[in-house]
Write a structure and sequence with these properties.
The chain is mostly beta strands. It has eight helices and 46 strands. 6% of the residues lie in helices and 49% in strands. The strands form ten sheets. It has a 22-stranded antiparallel β-barrel. Strands 3-8-9-6-7 form a five-stranded mixed beta sheet. It has a three-stranded mixed beta sheet with strand order 14-13-20, with no helix packed on it. The N terminus is likely disordered.
Length: 849
């Protein structure tokens, strides 16, 4: 008996009918849901009365095909239909739809600075201003397209499914899967099948004068008997919905553009030329993917794929509803209008762009006893964004630094742009040996090796364009300084000191990272319906950071000296599970996650020097203890229930320090405790089904931490305890409670016409935005709760499909992030980041096969 397993423990290569529910499974089902209901009909059958077939879902999270309920840990699957119904178009909008998965959502503008969060395993604050352009630490969740890791921005298109793996995945998915993994599974080319789709859509957005539109298409072409080609592409334009007053007319729209004069005859006191923009925060995106499949033998296949994505826009989803209007704090001749709903004030445009590419090659060979597979990938992402920091810096420390950058008296045309650029180039190679599924084998295994080589650049430029020139036109000869009485110097000591191109500061950071790891999992089927899996992965990593730090106004130069941080680590996994009835499972899990440490290269001398304790940060690791019940019944109803307790050692925090320096440092300990529940299936009304998910994650610090840092006053003073956190504080980025729910109702209007209606909604409780007060605040900030309803109606007739959709049905404005520096400059710094308003749109598509 020890060598014979239930036929339900694996997914066979062909389709099979779900077996009748056993008496035990029936008892569990009745306790949860009452009497069973017949499965919904398959809408592809023209003789049926319509309905969504609730069929078995197959996933490959364990590196072999398995029924979703047989995977012995918490995993969610999102289908293309669910993506379309919810309006999710990218990772950030997807995260709002899946309980237990979260992400700071500031649009594609900040795609380089955010990463997915699962079960609350994140200690880094909301991106602006903690890391305004890119992540410094390794992401806590690994993201993959197929088997290839990826960073950057791309749209979700032509996917077979999305797999959300909750909890540390250190053995199979390696470093960067500290809290879990996201697997985006694209559709592969199909042999002997001509197929294609084309779709066009248009939409209106509340509070916007613009119209959104999108076009997308897919084609699958067989090229002979053993080769097939597939290509898909999507272009999307989203209008802005925020009006802005104040962008100054400049010689160019970069960080170096000098403001033009309203009165050229008065170059010292002239106001700038102000403009205003309607629908400021527009965005356009393109994502295309092409793949070629070669399958000369039944046992061998090779798939080569290219993905290219571009996104660009202006501004961000931020508003200032509380500014009452008044005289400009810098230009006494100008009165600014009041803020308000969907209104913003800014002195420069904020253009941004990001490009992402992925090239991958997947090889697979069935050797009989096992499948040998290899994945080679090379991905790049690069982006830039311009951020207006004039008001924030003008209000910081009561305006202490304004004379240094805007002169004395203050330049009425002063602007203070931050330019961020970043790029990453990553090559990875993984080779796996996965044993063949055979009920007669008592042991299954997965073994492999992994190699990654990554180079990252991150540059930060700060300018004060036009202010040095203006101070020279004043006749200033000496630089600005503060007197012993704390008063700024006066003429002729009013010179604004900058470097080339009016640079006041630059930070040029280069990182290289190499990871070589070996991994394996062994599963012992010690009873026909019981198994236990043990896993291990050993890491050998090398990380180098070299950062040039140069302050021109307060002369400081820190050369780009390489700092090394090497690490070796072994993580493990133990995972028993038992199929106590047909398709009904109970499991337990202990798994570990690991993330590399690194170096910060913060200045060690000068007025902004930092404590030596901040020059390096340590690796962090997680231990996950989990237990759960999973099942699927004959009528297609499924459920998952999991409880977890994650212990996190040395959590990494990426932060903007009080001095303005960017660094990563470690807290001591944290913990995330909670549970997850998901269920989908038919209801008691014919053709009506549901999907519901709930996650609770209490992620918090469990011990205090305290680190010294520069006080940010330009004196070079290191103050103990400036970076602190207290036991019990909620970790940032994740709600304690998150819920998603949807109803799906199918109506057969007439022969061949099926209408599907789907109201759906999400709820998230308030999210903490940092573990300690940020610069300029005395309290820990939180988002508002998030409650959004959507509606989707799709009419299908043969090859045609028409969809009417409404996102944010009740046009609710939720606060994703309150101001990082509130109540400064008469509330000019009170910028709130908000969600998109109601969108109503229609999509028309045609498919052929």
């Amino acid at each position: 008996m020890g060598r014979t397993r239930s036929k339900n423990s694996r997914v066979a290569g062909d389709a099979r009918v779900a077996p009748a529910t056993s008496s035990i499974a029936g008892a569990v089902f009745f306790a949860l849901y009452g009497a069973p209901h017949p499965a919904l009909a398959d809408p592809s059958d023209a003789n049926d009365t319509g309905g969504n077939a609730l069929q078995e879902v197959v996933v490959t999270a364990t590196r072999r095909s398995q029924a979703l309920e047989a995977v012995p840990y918490s995993i969610s699957v999102v289908t293309p239909e669910q993506l379309a119904a919810s309006g999710a178009t990218d990772l950030m909008s997807l995260a709002s739809q899946v309980p237990g998965l979260s992400m700071f959502d500031y649009g594609a503008r900040f795609a380089g600075a955010v990463s997915p969060i699962i079960r609350g395993i994140n200690a880094t604050a909301s991106p602006p201003p903690s890391r305004g352009f890119r992540t410094f630490e390794q992401d806590p969740v690994g993201t993959y397209i197929g088997n290839s890791p990826i960073d950057g921005y791309f749209q979700l298109d032509d996917l077979n499914r999305v797999e959300v793996l909750r909890g540390p995945q250190g053995t199979l998915y390696g470093a960067g899967a500290l809290g879990g993994a996201l697997r985006l599974i694209p559709n592969s080319p199909q042999l002997d099948t001509w197929a294609g789709t084309v779709e066009a859509g248009g939409s209106t957005l509340a509070h916007s004068d613009g119209a959104g539109w999108s076009v997308k298409g897919m084609v699958n072409v067989p090229l002979g008997d053993v080769v097939a080609f597939r290509a898909s592409a999507k272009y999307d334009y989203q209008p802005g919905w925020i009006n802005v007053f104040g962008p100054e007319v400049r010689t160019n729209n970069t960080a170096y553009g000098i403001p033009l004069l309203a009165d050229p005859a008065d170059p010292v006191n002239s106001s700038p030329l102000y403009t205003s923009r309607s629908d400021w925060n527009w965005q356009r995106s393109f994502t295309g993917r092409a793949s070629l499949l070669w399958k000369p033998l039944e046992a061998f296949s090779a798939e080569f794929a290219l993905l290219h994505s571009e996104a660009s826009g202006d501004g961000g989803p931020q508003v200032n509803p509380v500014y009452a209007g008044g005289v400009s704090p810098f230009d006494p001749h100008t009165v600014f209008p009041a803020g308000g709903p969907y209104q913003e004030l800014a002195l420069i445009d904020e253009p941004w762009d990001r490009t992402t590419n992925l090239t991958s090659l997947d090889l697979s060979y069935d050797a009989g006893f096992a499948t040998v597979s290899a994945t080679s990938s090379y991905h790049t992402t690069e982006g830039s964004l311009l951020n207006d920091s004039t008001f924030d810096y003008g209000g910081y420390a009561g305006g202490y630094y304004v004379p240094y950058y805007a002169g004395v008296p203050t330049n009425p045309r002063w602007v203070y742009p931050f330019l961020f650029t970043d790029s990453a180039h990553t090559f990875s190679q993984e080779v796996r040996l996965v044993s063949k599924a055979d009920p007669e084998h008592a042991l299954d295994y997965v073994v492999g090796v992994y190699y990654e080589n990554q180079a990252r650049d991150g540059n930060w430029f700060v300018t004060s364009p036009g202010s040095p020139e203006r101070s020279m036109q004043e006749g200033c000869t000496g630089p600005v300084f503060y007197t012993a009485a704390g008063v700024p110097s006066t003429f002729p000591n009013c010179l604004v000191v900058t470097g080339p191109n009016d640079l006041t500061f630059q930070q040029l950071d280069k990182q290289t990272f190499q990871d070589v790891s070996e991994f394996g999992e062994l599963t012992w089927h010690f009873l026909p319906n019981a198994q236990i899996t043990g896993g291990v992965r050993h890491f050998d990593q090398h990380f180098v950071d070299a950062q040039l730090y140069q302050d021109f106004t307060f002369p400081t130069l820190v050369p780009a000296t390489p700092h090394h941080s090497d690490a070796t680590k072994t993580v493990g996994k133990i995972n028993p599970s038992y199929e106590y009835a047909d398709h009904q499972y109970v499991y337990a899990l202990w798994s570990q996650g690991f993330r590399r440490g690194g170096a910060n290269s913060v200045p060690s001398t000068g007025p902004f020097k930092e404590s030596p304790l901040l020059r390096d940060y340590e690796p962090d690791s997680t231990n996950n203890y989990e237990a759960g019940l999973k099942g699927r019944f004959a009528n297609g109803l499924s459920y998952t229930f999991a409880v977890f307790d994650i212990y996190w050692d040395r959590p990494q925090i990426s932060s903007s320090l009080p001095s303005g320096n960017l660094a990563v440092y470690n807290a001591n300990k944290a913990q995330s405790t909670g549970f997850e529940f998901e269920s989908s299936g038919p209801l008691f009304v014919p053709h009506l089904s549901y999907s519901v998910g709930y996650a609770y994650a209490d992620a918090r610090l469990t011990s205090d931490f305290s680190l010294p840092a520069n006080n940010g006053l330009g004196t070079g003073t290191i103050v103990p305890g400036l970076l602190t956190g207290s036991a019990g504080e909620q970790l940032p980025g994740s709600p304690k409670n998150s819920v998603s729910a949807a109803l799906i109702y199918d109506i057969n209007l007439s022969a061949g016409y099926v209408l599907t209606l789907s109201p759906n909604g999400v709820y998230r409780s308030a999210v903490a935005l940092q573990v300690a007060p940020s610069v300029g605040t005395t309290t820990i900030q939180h988002s508002s709760t998030y409650e959004i309803m959507n509606f989707n109606a799709t009419l299908t007739h043969n090859a045609w499909r028409a969809t009417l959709y409404v996102t944010n049905l009740f046009d609710k404005e939720e606060i994703l992030s309150p101001p990082s520096q509130p109540n400064q400059l008469n509330n000019l710094t009170d910028d709130y980041l908000v969600n998109p308003p109601r969108e109503i749109g229609i999509r028309l598509g045609y498919s052929f096969k």
